[in-house]
Amino acid sequence: MIIGHRSMLVALALLLAVVPSARAGFDQAAAAFDKGDYATALEELKPLAAKGDARSQYAMGVLAENGFGMPKDLKQAAAWYRKAAEQGNTDAQFNLGAMYEHGIGIPVNYAEAARWYRPAAEAGDIDALSNLGVLYEKGSGVPQDKVLALALYNVSVALDSNKNGTAAANRQGLANRMSLDDVRKALALTNELLEPNQLKTGLQAQWRARK
User: Fold this and answer.
1) What tens-digit pLDDT sequence spans the chain (211 residues)?
2) Do residues 128 and 120 make contact, with C-beta atoms less than 8 angstroms apart?
3) Within this chain, do residues 119 and 211 fall inside the same structural domain, yes or no?
4) Alpha-carbon torsion 128, 133, 139, 143, what sign?
């Protein structure tokens, strides 16, 4: 099973510190969104997004994707996600990757899906790790590599406080179809990636090795 894209504005209530003027706009947007007043949320977010604020751009993508305060427009949503993703917003990177993977508002492109999942996975996004595992398991847009796929599932599960996500089921099914030697290789790679401060550099090394 492949995890779908995030369609709710979960980040608004957990925004990181920003400049005071932008923070005020975010606070008003979050309050309006919580009340279902999407028009006001849009009014507050749009000028911040236009000035290049990545969090606002991500939020604009969610509004456009769901038709909150505006007509639903998946192409516009993808465009906003791209702007935020290019600035390093991991939620936007995940959503853009999922849109490419599933052909939501843009044509299916597994290589682009992997491209955008990777930086989110490097930051520890459990869903990006899981979805990348699917791509590497199937060889969709990337070289097929079941050892890496199983390691990605393992890391996703390890970082998931609930331990019952899609990655848990995916890894069990994949492990059952792998040789014991390959499972051991995946476990060794998993342990390497889970070493303190090693996830980003470790994953980047894996991407380079499989180009």
Assistant:
1) 333 455 433 444 333 334 445 556 777 887 898 889 999 999 999 999 999 999 899 999 999 999 999 999 999 999 999 999 999 999 999 999 999 999 999 999 999 999 999 999 999 999 999 999 999 999 999 999 999 999 999 999 999 988 768 999 999 999 999 999 999 999 999 999 999 999 999 999 999 998 7
2) yes
3) yes
4) positive
Joined tokens for residue 68: 């909150």
**Same domain, yes or no: 134 and 178:** yes
CA 94 remoteness from chain centre: 2
C-beta contacts of 164-168 below 8 A and 24+ residues apart: 165/3, 165/126, 165/127, 165/130, 166/1, 166/2, 166/3, 166/130, 167/126, 167/129, 167/130, 167/133
Token pair in block for residue 190: 């998993």
Question: Do 28 and 79 sit in the same domain of this protein?
Answer: yes
Do both 122 and 53 map to the same domain?
A: no
